[in-house]
Each structure stands twice: as C-alpha cells, then as structure tokens.
Amino acid sequence: MPTVSIIVPCYNEQATIGTLLDAIFRQTFPCRDMEVIIADGMSRDGTRQEISNFAQTHPELRVSIVDNPRKIIPAALNLAIAASSGDVIVRLDAHSAPEPDYIERCVRALSAGLGDNVGGAWQVKPGSSGWIAQAIAAAGAHPLGVGDARYRLGGAPQAVDTVPFGAFKRSLIERVGKFDESLLTNEDYEFNVRIRRAGGVVWFDPQIRSSYYARSTLVELLRQYWRYGYWKGRMLRRYPETIRWRQFLPPAFVFSLLALAVVALWLPAARWLLLIEMTTYLFVLLLAGLVEAWRRRNPALIIGLPLAIASMHLAWGSALLWSLLR
Predict the structure, then answer these.
(1) Given pLDDT bands bounded at 50, 70 and 90, which one contains residue 275?
(2) Residues 56 and 148 both lie in one domain
(3) 79 and 159 co-located in one domain
(4) Are strands 167-169 and 88-91 parallel, antiparallel or unpaired?
(5) Would you say residue 285 has pLDDT above 90?
(6) Are residues 183 and 294 in the same domain?
(7) What is the average pLDDT score of the chain?
(8) Using an 8 Å Cβ cutoff, are 141 and 129 in contact?
(9) Is residue 102 part of a domain?
(10) Which of 9, 95, 168, 196 supports an S-S bond with 117, CB 3.0-4.6 Å?
(11) Which residues sit opposite 119 in a β-bridge?
C-alpha cells in the first residue's frame, strides 16, 4: 500500500482547519500510512493552536506545520511537497472537508492508471448561516455561475481540463515540475495544463467527493473572483489556447457593457442596446433565482442568487480584462 502525504496551504483558518483535520482523521485509508503537511502563511489568529491541539489529541495521525513566509498558495504547496515523504500527494484546502473514502478512492484511481492527477466533485456549502452565504453557496454550484465545470456540476467519470484538489504520484513532479510561484491563483489549472501538455491525463471521478465552504459575504466573494479573474488573465498570456467558452463569457459581457456605455454618449441606439442587454441579463438571473428558490425551498435565493452570480461575473470578467490589458 502506498503512503500518502496530504498537503494543505493555510492562512488564518482557525474557523475551518479543525473540520478539515477531523475529516482527514476519519478517512478509511489507514492513519499509519498518512501524513498531513500544513504550509501556514504565518497565521495571526488561533490557527496554529488549533492544529497543535488536534495533533496532541490525535497522535495516530502525523500532522506537521511548515512556515510559508511568502504567504502565497503555490509557494505553500511547494514547501509542503518538499517537507513530505509519501508516495502519493493529495492536495486539500483549509476550506474543505473530504468524504471518508476520499483518500482511498484517489489512491485506487491512481493505482488503476485512470489518470496522472485525479480528483472529484465539490459539494459547495455556505460559509455561515446567513441568507447571503446560502446564496453564494448556491451560486457556486449553479451553471450560470460556474459554466460546465465538471467538479462543480458532477457527471460521468472522464478526462477533464482540471480538478480542484488533485491527487498524484510524487514522480509526476519530476515530469512536469512543481507549482508555478509566479501565479498567486490559478496554480492548479496551470499545473494541470502542464500535465496535459506532457501527455498526461487529468481524471474526474464523481465518487471522489469533498465539501467546500464558500465565502460568507459579497465583499469576500468579489475579492475572491477578482483575484481569480486577474490571475486567470496572467495565465492566459502564457497559454492562450486554454480559454474555454464559459471563461470567455464574463469578460465579453463586461466589455460589451463598457463599450455600449461609451458609445451611448453619442448614439441613442447604443442606449437601447445597453438597456436591452441589462434587462435581459437581470431577467435571466431573477428567473434562475426563482427556480432555485423553489427547488431549495428558500425564498431568499430569489434576490440572493442573482446578487451572488452577478458579483462573480462582474468581478471575474473585469479583473480578467484588466489583467490582459495591463
């Protein structure tokens, strides 16, 4: 049986790190064959104390912390990999909670040769109990918010562009290199691009399941998707062929709004086009909110879902355009 190193980038995650460690401890894969390496960006809250408390009460699972003074995710991943010793590396997130058979299924898929990097489906959960947090979680699993991403929507086992929390053999690092520390976000996608360019397979298995705790407020969501969009733009400068239709639509929408708004200063027809575009967009979002509110029996989604999806589109699209134009 292979040994497994679970690597986790972390910064100020006192609220969720215990949930992750509990989920790892409950894995069907033997604790004696696992280790957890947490690369911490010098947290200022009680994150390290939470980790220390867990390690003291669960000595069966090896848990260690490495310092990440640069406080960026790809550096954290590389530091954790360097400190690890397992045959298989599993990347998890401090906002996640894997299902009990997560590690076992990842190892099984790798052993069967299904992919070079394997991962599964997210169940997006609210980061808090508030109505907007519930709406943000619903938006994170809605096709209007995330397009056709398999790991968010599910589907049959298949080769895909990317998976969120990949598991791979240590030898893969020797083939394609470590995570790119020039990208502060989108490091997973870029890593998977190099795997596919090297002839490897990124494999999605819907039975490999984990929960992901979404942001709790619209401000946090806007910051998150601005960061995603900006660094997606930096990555596209290097790999322009990797753009997908679902990634193209938000920046195209933002550009059309800006262009029509400028032209509308001189041409009345542009004002009508801008009004039609905005009205159609709002109608589609409100319709999606109504349907989701009925499906989930949650009236707050009538307004909350459109707010969350619009925040995702506008922040991501604007940031990507800004990144490409800089």
Answers:
(1) very high
(2) yes
(3) yes
(4) antiparallel
(5) yes
(6) no
(7) 92
(8) no
(9) yes
(10) 168
(11) 204
One-letter amino acid for residue 13 of the chain: E
Angstrom distances, CA of residue 229 to CA of 71, 223, 244, 305: 19, 10, 13, 20
Please state the rounded mean pLDDT for residues 112-133: 92
Arithmetic mean of pLDDT, 276-298:
95
Contacts of 236 (CB under 8 A, 6+ apart): 242, 243, 320, 324
Residues 62 and 199 in one domain: yes
Residues 269, 301 within the same domain? yes
- Which phi-psi region, left, alpha or beta, contains residue 239 (left: φ > 0; alpha: ψ -120 to 50)? beta
Structural domain includes residue 224: no
Q: In the predicted model, what is the mean pLDDT of residues 58-75? A: 95
pTM above 0.90, yes or no: no
* Residue where one domain finishes, among candidates 183, 216, 249: 216
Report the interhelical angle of 218-238 vs 301-325 (nearest 10°): 30
Task: Give the model's confidence band at 128: pLDDT under 50 very low, under 70 low, under 90 confident, else very high.
Answer: confident
Q: Please count the structural domains in the chain.
A: 2
Q: The tokens of 325 are what? A: 């134009």
Beta strands in the chain (DSSP E): 4-10, 34-40, 62-67, 88-91, 96-98, 117-125, 158-159, 167-169, 202-213
What pLDDT digit, counting tens, does each position of 289-312 carry? 999 999 999 999 999 999 999 999
Whether 221 is in a domain gets the answer no
Looking at the structure, tell me whether residues 301 and 172 fall in a common domain: no
| CA 67/CA 79 separation, integer angstroms | 8
Report helix, strand or coil for 59: coil
Which secondary-structure segment (H or E) carries 171? helix 171-176
Residue 140's φ and ψ, nearest 5 degrees, are -70, -10
Does residue 228 surpass a pLDDT of 70? yes
Instruction: Give a yes or no: residue 227 inside a domain.
Output: no
